[in-house]
Specification:
The chain has 155 residues and is α+β, with helices and mostly antiparallel strands. Helix content is 21%, strand content 37%. Strands 4-5-6-9-8-7 form a 6-stranded antiparallel β-barrel.
Length: 155
């Protein structure tokens, strides 16, 4: 997809540019340029800092019997990468959610909050996580705190 850069020249957008936009949006709570598809078409409001998950980390989430890549994670939610907008519906409750973090498994339930089409034909599913057990939630909180400290560490 060609877009004009800051100097007005046409520039082809590559997959790495799309990933960089997602990382920046995850860090700074800015929209990625794609419209969020929500049941009531309201703007999705982010309340927590998101940790972008690079491909080298390979974080996964299991929802039911299916496994998905995690694009970002926050204290109370995850961004799940999917191939079809029909995989989930906005407002859908999800049982049996397991997030695999640094050798640990955090178990929760979830609610799909938004579906965002990405420029590469994939979809980002924003999932709010709900924990019945505070110890399960602490696994995610610990990872997010540690990752945030590392991101903003000044050497």
């Amino acid at each position: 997809m060609a877009q004009k850069n800051q100097k007005g020249h046409l520039q082809e957008k590559t997959g790495s540019h799309v990933l960089q936009e997602l990382v920046e949006a995850s860090l700074w709570d800015q929209p990625t340029g794609s419209e969020a598809v929500a049941a009531d078409q309201d703007q999705v409001v982010r309340k927590c800092f998101r940790i972008p998950i690079g491909q080298e980390n390979g974080m996964k989430v299991r929802i039911g019997d299916a496994s998905f890549d995690v694009l970002n994670i926050s204290e109370n939610g995850i961004g799940v990468l999917g191939h079809s907008p029909e995989e989930f519906r906005v407002g859908e409750g999800l049982d049996g959610v397991t997030v695999f973090i640094e050798g640990a498994a955090a178990r929760a339930s979830g609610t799909v909050r938004h579906i965002t089409p990405l420029e590469d034909g994939l979809f980002l599913f924003g999932v709010a996580l709900h924990y019945d057990d505070p110890q399960e939630h602490e696994k995610v909180l610990s990872f997010v705190r540690k990752a945030r400290r590392e991101m903003f560490r000044s050497d």
